[in-house]
């Protein structure tokens, strides 16, 4: 049972992490418009994947999640790694007045994640599940509170799930990066302690192969100090903070 499932096949971080883990292993890529995953599949093959399958995946179709995981397990002979890398940033200004968009962000970035993580933890027997939180969830800001609130909820869920899995052959690793410079944030000015998808992938891959059992990874590590400083900023000042 050494198959890899990448949920969110177009994810910069997910794709980079996949290439660091897939040598000698079968892979399933799941995303909207699965037929557009050719480049990702070619990267995985070049990195040593023994076979690459693609599946259509719609995160908001919660009823389809378990069947997709079961299919991925069948295709690979059993999953040993699941990378939950789907998500959207959304548009904060639009979400402030468009309730449908606010709910879309919440569904993709929180509800669908909870659904998929629950199914993976229920069906996988060993290996690792990787989820992606964010510094945005540490303390919600006026400039991105809709997205930030989903990451706060997801982070809390992951901490509890990681504790439930503690002592079993299956573990959940939650990556907590700072601002990630990638396709999702294209055109935005990088924030302090920004990282690239490759840096996030390196940190997670190192924890999987050489780590000491950490369940939460601050990326970069010094981001933890900034987070504690953020928590101490008085509310009147914090509400004026930019993204």
TrEMBL record:
Protein origin, superkingdom: Bacteria
Keywords, ordered alphabetically: Oxidoreductase
Family membership: Belongs to the short-chain dehydrogenases/reductases (SDR) family.
Record-linked SUPFAM superfamilies: NAD(P)-binding Rossmann-fold domains (SSF51735)
PANTHER family: 5-KETO-D-GLUCONATE 5-REDUCTASE, DECAPRENYLPHOSPHORYL-2-KETO-BETA-D-ERYTHRO-PENTOSE REDUCTASE
Coiled-coil spans in chain: none
UniProt-listed PROSITE patterns: ADH_SHORT (PS00061)
Protein name as annotated: SDR family oxidoreductase
InterPro entries: NAD(P)-bd_dom_sf, Sc_DH/Rdtase_CS, SDR_fam
């Amino acid at each position: 049972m050494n198959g890899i499932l990448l949920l969110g096949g177009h994810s910069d971080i997910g794709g980079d992490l996949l290439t660091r883990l897939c040598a000698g292993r079968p892979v399933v890529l799941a995303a909207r418009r699965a037929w557009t995953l050719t480049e990702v599949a070619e990267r995985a093959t070049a990195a040593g994947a023994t076979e690459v399958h693609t599946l259509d995946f719609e995160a908001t179709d919660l009823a389809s999640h378990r069947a997709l995981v079961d299919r991925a397990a069948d295709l690979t002979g059993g999953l040993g790694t699941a990378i939950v890398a789907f998500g959207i940033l959304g548009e904060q200004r639009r979400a402030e007045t468009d309730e449908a968009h606010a709910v879309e962000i919440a569904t993709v970035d929180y509800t669908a994640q909870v659904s998929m993580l629950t199914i993976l933890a229920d069906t996988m027997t060993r290996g690792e599940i990787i989820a992606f939180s964010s510094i945005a969830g540490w303390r919600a800001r006026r400039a991105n509170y809709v997205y930030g609130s989903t990451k706060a909820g997801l982070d809390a869920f992951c901490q509890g799930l990681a504790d439930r899995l503690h002592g079993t052959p299956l573990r959940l690793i939650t990556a907590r990066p700072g601002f990630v410079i990638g396709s999702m944030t294209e055109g935005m000015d990088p924030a302090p302690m920004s990282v690239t998808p490759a840096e996030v992938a390196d940190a997670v891959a190192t924890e999987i192969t050489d780590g000491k059992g950490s369940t939460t990874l601050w990326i970069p590590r010094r981001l933890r100090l900034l987070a504690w400083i953020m928590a101490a900023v008085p509310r009147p000042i914090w509400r004026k903070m930019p993204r």
